[in-house]
């Protein structure tokens, strides 16, 4: 058994055969991704060549899928064998337009079967409004993707610690929403620093637990998009964005072993395997993800020893 980002992970699984779509700022050909960037689509500027003009997407992808090549295998992601579908929906400042995100969701609805996409990782968060809240086109497209069998993971957002501070799309009742379990100073912007930042439930008009799970998000070391330009191969970033790919990567390990599991069954396995922490329930949901126990929950489910 190995430990990755402080989480025990099974040594015999790496996510091989699982295709994961990452909606973010893009990706670069960092050596930790070797030849596993299967598809790149730019919904912001329409460029054909692979790029990331912000770095957030590359960092998130490294947490999920980096294999540690540039760091002599000392720094690696949760599922270093997955195939990556990088969908650029955020610009160089990390900002996004809803129309770009909707285009990416439309593309996923059209092509997820062709490219065998089992998981979507979304480290994006916005305060819910008429266009991104319950009943919006945004939510309906996410519902459709979930209903077609895709496991979707979304950030709880960094708008906490008040009750009802989970951001969209994390408010969606079907998605698996991921928060952070640590407290530390996080610079939201130049005027605002929060120690308790992870978005918390409940979601108005929704009896579903939000977030469902938490993972680590403090000073996470992962792939640096500027490495190809002479900078160090890894860089630290913090926030719920960093927690999402840990959960998504864990799901890739589970689906590698048990590809027949539905997304609903994957959610059950997270429910049964996450470890309770001494933090508020509306911050942690079911608890801290445990990849090894997640696989064990899959064993029990498949053997019909888990209801």
What do these coordinates show?
There is one protein chain. By secondary structure, the chain is an alpha/beta fold. It has helices at residues 56-65, 98-111, 137-147, 240-257, 263-273, 281-284, 291-302, and strands at residues 2-4, 7-9, 19-24, 37-42, 83-88, 117-122, 151-155, 176-180, 186-189, 192-194, 213-215, 220-223, 234-237. The radius of gyration is 17 Å and the shape is globular. 51% of the residues are buried.
Please write the string of helix (H) and strand (E) elements.
EEEEHEHEHEEEEEEEHHHH
Runs in which pLDDT lies below 50 for 5 or more consecutive residues are: none
Beta strand count:
13
**Beta-sheet strand percentage?**
15-25%
Q: How does the overall form come out from the CA principal axes?
A: globular
Keywords:
alpha/beta; seven-stranded parallel beta sheet; 307 residues
Précis, in short:
The protein is an alpha/beta fold and 307 residues long. The protein has helices at residues 56-65, 98-111, 137-147, 240-257, 263-273, 281-284, 291-302; strands at residues 2-4, 7-9, 19-24, 37-42, 83-88, 117-122, 151-155, 176-180, 186-189, 192-194, 213-215, 220-223, 234-237.
Q: Can you lay out the helices and strands and say which pair or pack?
A:
Layout: E1 2-4, E2 7-9, E3 19-24, E4 37-42, H1 56-65, E5 83-88, H2 98-111, E6 117-122, H3 137-147, E7 151-155, E8 176-180, E9 186-189, E10 192-194, E11 213-215, E12 220-223, E13 234-237, H4 240-257, H5 263-273, H6 281-284, H7 291-302
Parallel strand pairs: 3-5, 3-6, 4-5, 6-7, 7-8, 8-11
Antiparallel strand pairs: 1-2, 9-10, 12-13
Helix pairs in contact: 1-4, 2-3, 4-7, 5-7
């Amino acid at each position: 058994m190995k430990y990755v980002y402080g989480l025990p992970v099974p040594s015999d699984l790496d996510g091989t055969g699982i295709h994961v779509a990452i909606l973010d700022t893009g990706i670069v050909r960092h050596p930790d991704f070797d030849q596993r960037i299967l598809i790149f689509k730019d919904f912001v500027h329409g460029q054909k060549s692979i790029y990331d003009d912000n770095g957030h997407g590359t960092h998130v992808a490294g947490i999920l899928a980096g294999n540690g090549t540039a760091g002599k295998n000392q720094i690696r992601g949760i599922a270093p064998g997955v195939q990556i579908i990088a969908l650029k929906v955020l610009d160089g400042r990390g900002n996004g337009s809803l129309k770009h995100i909707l285009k990416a969701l439309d593309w996923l609805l059209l092509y997820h079967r062709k490219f065998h996409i089992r998981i979507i990782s979304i480290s994006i968060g916005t305060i819910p409004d008429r266009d991104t809240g319950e009943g919006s086109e945004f939510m309906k497209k996410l519902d459709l993707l979930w209903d077609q069998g895709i496991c979707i993971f979304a950030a709880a957002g960094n708008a906490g610690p008040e009750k009802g501070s989970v951001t969209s799309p994390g408010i969606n009742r079907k998605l698996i929403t991921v928060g952070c379990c640590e407290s530390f100073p996080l610079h939201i912007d130049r005027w605002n620093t929060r120690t308790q930042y992870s978005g918390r439930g409940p979601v108005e008009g929704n009896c579903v637990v939000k977030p469902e799970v938490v993972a680590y998000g403090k000073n996470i070391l992962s792939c640096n998009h500027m490495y190809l330009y002479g900078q160090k191969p890894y860089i630290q970033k913090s926030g719920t964005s960093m927690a999402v790919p840990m959960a998504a990567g864990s799901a890739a390990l589970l689906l590698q072993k048990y590809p027949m599991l539905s997304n609903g069954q994957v959610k059950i396995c997270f429910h049964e395997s996450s470890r309770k922490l001494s933090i508020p329930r509306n911050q942690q949901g079911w608890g801290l993800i445990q990849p090894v126990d997640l696989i064990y929950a899959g064993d029990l489910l498949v053997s019909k020893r888990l209801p």
